[in-house]
Fold this sequence. Notes:
The chain has two domains: about 25-120, Serine Threonine Protein Phosphatase 5, Tetratricopeptide repeat, CATH 1.25.40; about 130-435, 6 Propeller (Neuraminidase), CATH 2.120.10.30. Helix content is about 20%, strand content about 35%. It is built from seven helices and 24 strands. It has helices at about 25-40, 40-55, 60-70, 75-90, 105, 110-120, 425-435; strands at about 130-135, 140-145, 155, 160-165, 170-175, 180-190, 195-200, 215-220, 230-235, 240-250, 250-255, 260-265, 270-275, 285-290, 295-300, 305-310, 315, 325-335, 335-340, 350-355, 360-370, 380-385, 385-390, 415-420.
Amino acid sequence: MKSMKTILLVTCIVLPAISPAAPVDVDALRAELRAANAANDGTRVSAAAAELRREFTGHPAYLYYAARGAALSGDHEKALRFLANVTARGVDMLAPVANDAAFEPVRALSGYSALLQQRDLLHAPAGQAAVAWSFGEPDTQPEAVALDSKGCVYIGSVQHGDIMVRDTNGDIRHWPAPGRWSVQGLHFSPDGKQLWAASSAMNVSRNADSADHGRSALIAFDPGTGKVIAQHQLPESGEHVLGDFLFLDADTVLATDSIGGGVYALDMRSGEFVQRVKPGTLRSPQGLALLGGFVIIADYSNGLYRFDPVGETLLRIEDGPAAPYGIDGLYVHENAIIAIHNGVQPYQVNRYALSSDAARIVSRETLLANHPAFGEPTLGTVAGETLYLVANSLWNHVTAEGTLPAAHLSVPVILSLDLSHTAVSSEQAEVGASAGRE
């Protein structure tokens, strides 16, 4: 559920910030990397990229710059290994390589043609997902989906600022969110008696009052009537987007703020928000999921984090064989993480197994990629053995002014993805990602 200020980290090769707890001055390194790259100074590019990769071993952009630094320095085989590394992690970063003179000797290597073939495989359809539902106006811009026990389907709209409800007869109703703010995350309360939504006033909220811009709230609806039961607005000053959330327990909601870079807990009884991860600690937190006693948080630019809600500790999860960046929706199934990526190419849904202490990714499996309905997949919900996800949020076509060009409009599509098949072993995934490890 990217806000309009969220940085696309891979396709444009944008360099993200990291948390203040990092042992390096990332802002300085980013500035140095930009300057070194502009000067085509291979030694400096390699040095800055190496420092950043110590924290983000699987970051596609940093692997690309490591490759470019090696190419500029004349170590063409090493450059190829870095490119193979990122490709083995399931991400295509070869587009800027094709016309870059620095990579000309690398493109002449015998191994480069094999790498292109591997890249092509990344863009082949992977996995099988069926269209579960497709309904609503083409300019809806869907963000999230929820299901109730009766079989009703709920879709949150970014552009309209409402929730579309499709009952079991196929009839569709619209529930406006207070203020007609954009609707992001949707989840039922643990007892199933309330439908909760994260809602924010953004420049894409076409029916919202411009004076509300930057305000954000968690809202509870009666799932039978659409009546607003409770609305809890984040009291923090400045601009905020509460994007996704989960229920820590029957009385507590934990929500990410993709603009402010923090995580908040809402006491549903008192309506009070408490900072659980200080604003600015994360770059752009998005989805989150409960795994054991930990909350796993997807930072769009910085990867996965492990948050201990009891000890109040935050730890960045090591990338291992993966590239856990550009993640929007995050879920748990059979003790593994299911991640919906829309900030890398190709768009994909991956299964990540973590170490027993949730400190490291130990295996990666692509469950779905290059589905013909994909128009930037975002959020979903797991029901039994099935992940239902929004296939076409259309964020990739939204202009800087928050509008959707008519040429790119499409009716919302909800896909169903079977999660019941067996995941690959950690050994298989480790071997696949070992290429180009330096």
